[in-house]
Amino acid sequence: MGKESVIKRVYRDHYRPLLFFSLFLVVLSLAVIGYKLATTGDFIDKGVSLKGGITLTVLTEQPVDPEELAAYLHEQLPKADVNVRTTAEAGKQKSVLIEASDTTSEELLAALQEKIPDSKNKNNIAIDSTDPVLGALSFIQTMKAVYIAFLFMAIVVFLYFGEHLWAKIIALALAVVSGIMMFHATSTVVAIVSLIIGAAVFFLCFKYSIPSIAVILAAFSDIMFAIACLNIIGMKLSIAGIAAFLMLIGYSVDTDILLSVRVMKRKEGSIFDRVLGAFKTGITMSLAALAAVIVTLIFVNSDVIRQIMMVLLFGLIADMIFTWFQNAGILRWHFERKGKT
What are phi and psi of 247, to 5 degrees? Predict the structure, then answer.
């Protein structure tokens, strides 16, 4: 009981340092992403489905060290970008999955046969290739989808929490125009104009509804934190991973909206009491989702499912930080300025 009271006291009396800590994490995440962009030209590692190349799967129970095999393939194919993973079932290796770009399937298979004899049997191998142009197009389309989803999430939040009807109407009109332009954008100029109009939507949210921008900022922070973590562990993102970010937008706003509704719409108790009430419900939701993700990561061997779960794992961890430190801190600061406690 004493421990719980200390935690409550820290959360009640020192929410500003917690808020600044969450903002520091956002800045740190952006720095990691910026470093990745500056050193590689991409803000995240893209898999074969997003940049083109070959995916070669070999069914083999021969023990394989992914790092050793990757180093060997780099020696044999110095111009190729190679990534090696293994899949297992009940703790026993079942296959080796190799993603490679800037090489051909014949060259890759020839180099591999010296290390993995099972790859000489055509029944043990599966080859899938993606054209680089198609991969780049897929990446652009998925990025458009994430932007449009995030934009309309923001406008829905603003329509609910915004204070001025005229600002809501203008923001909605701008969001529709921005979304349509981005969806049909075939040139960089059109995409940039769409982003500028979208920025105007976010400015209206910031200007006329601090609770709205707090929710939007928390969702943005979740995504940036997840991308930074993926960069740190070196996971290559596929189209499935991008789809996971669309899921993450929904996961991230549910607890934020729960918090904001409790604080803004309910009248009983102090602001802190309402935050604490929302925390008990929200953290239970997040921990339940987190437990499901961890169980899936442990028992499911599908590479696609594991990638989705990794994005959600980092996103859910981020959501607990940015909802209860950042969003809650902004709301408390906002209402304290208005003289409400």
Answer: -65, -40
Q: Which two tokens stand for residue 55?
A: 């995916």
pLDDT digits (tens, 9 = 90+) for 187-225: 899 999 999 999 999 999 999 999 999 999 999 999 999
Q: Are 112 and 56 in contact (CB under 8 A)?
A: yes
Burial class (CB in 10 A: 0-12, 13-18, 19+), 86: middle
4-20 residues labelled b (16+ CB within 10 A) or e (exposed): eeeeeeebeeebeebbe
Alpha-carbon dihedral 56, 61, 62, 63, rounded to 10 degrees: 90
Name all domains of the chain by residue range, CATH numbers in brackets: 2-46+134-337 (1.20.1640.10), 53-130 (3.30.70.260)
- In this predicted structure, the answer to whether residue 269 has a pLDDT above a threshold of 90 is no
85 φ, ψ (degrees, to nearest 5): -135, 155
- Report CA 5 to chain centroid distance, whole Å: 34
**Please, which pLDDT band fits residue 340 given cuts at 50, 70 and 90?**
low
Chain centroid to Cα 228, Å, comes to 9
Q: Is the pTM of this model over 0.90?
A: no
